[in-house]
Input
Amino acid sequence: MKKLLLAFLCFTLTGHACEVYQPDKFNFTTSVIDRSFFPYKNNGDKSFSPFFQVTNCGALSNKNNFLMISFGPQNQELSDRIKAYDIANQTRNSGCKISNSPFKNEINYLLRKRYLNEKWKAIKSCYRIVVKDEGDQSLQFPEKQPGCEYAVNSQNEMEFNGGYCFFSPKEKSSYKISFKLKDDCLDYEGMRKLDIKVSDFQAVLNFYSAGDSSGSSLDLIAIKSFPLRFSVSPNRDLFLNSDVFGFFTPQFPANFYLPDTHLGTPEIMRSRNGKVVIRLPLWADNNCPETCRNGYCQALCDYSQPLSGEIALSEISSKGKILDSGLNWFQGGVILPRYQGEISGTTHEVPEEKFQVGKTYHIVMTFNDPKFDFQSFKQENQKKIQQSAMALPSIGSSAIPTIPSIEVIGTPPLIPEIIQIGDINFSTRINSAFDILFDSFEDFFKYKFWPPHFKEICHEGCTPIRNEYLVLSLDFLVKNINEFGDYEIEVLRISRKSTLLEAYNKFNPQMPKISCARRPSSNRGK
Output
């Protein structure tokens, strides 16, 4: 175990060997209307041809090391507090499940694995990464590579497909890295023949220095990480499309699918500035039936959904009267396609005197319009992102990697042995829980094209969007404050009112939580 922890520290803190630049953040979309694949920024300019540029690899070249490029989809767990990407399609069952689940149908590990395999099928069938030496020098790379398939376009250009690929950079070379889409994936007929079921997914492009190209080396140095989003425009024979703000803009469904949504247990703790930090998680299920026509199927829940509402916090008097505290803020997040689990949301600070031991409090969360609620949530939290980024120290242009397949929910399990490259990923920040969460949100916060202006809201049927399509409420008692400054609470009642979801009012409910079976410790090496 000590050797493993030492390897972890070396893996985490080593410096970088190349410099990687990205002109601007961008996402990619496939438009089947004009059979095009293009990136989109805020201006929707298709003439913008994005690429990643890799330069100054002298240190890496002098060591005869490889540049490893990894590309893989996000691997969804049961909470968005865990952000993992799979670059070898070797995800393992964490042994975790939702206890006291509020959902009718469980999305278990086998289903999550199936959804991950569908993303991998789309990646391997459709997407290619092109590596080009700008100086027209010949590319050097291992002929046999365990993590990718590649094709040589010319002496200075290759393209590959798969989780991770290696090449040997030259000291004075500059490389352009770009994406392309196979022609078979530019229309629904081609995607139908390939049996592509994915319409919207998150992915990551990582750059590493690698000591060898075996795919099992621990000699990996993180250089840079770029989260990306890939989407396919909805089939107009199946769904109404969002408004077009220019010819080369992404399209999304114009109808909002309302996930099965419930309140979670509030988390309250003292902060260092004399205030109290409160987080109100949601539990949501973004799964729904497909609609099919001419052999091609899609669903509204194949796309990411904004899930935000306004929170009002009040005290309940000893006589049962709700006392308005004037405390209101927006909460929520983004629920990814086919996801079921916790949306942990963001924290909000309130005056310490608002929470006292022995008193009872009332929380109500109101959902009015999916787009405008999310915009309000976005505006409140963009300031937090900026403040967090300014407060954290910088370590050059390096990034901090994490050990593969660490699932930290509640009590952390033992760090697994690293047999080969698995769910390796790293964040560009020194990760607090806040930063990890906002690494996911920033991609959705940046673009004006998402979320679209929704026309209707749907669950089992559709209805025009009106005020208060969903209202969730919760009463809780503050029992005490523990030695760590956390408020221990008891949930007394939860309720739900909705135009589309089943209403309920429950007293002394069993609240959902994530439970994990601990893995047996290994005796190897003893």
User: Anything to note?
Assistant: Residues 1-15, 392-420, 426-436, 520-526 have pLDDT under 50 and may be disordered. The chain is about 15% helix and 40% strand. The radius of gyration is 24 Å.
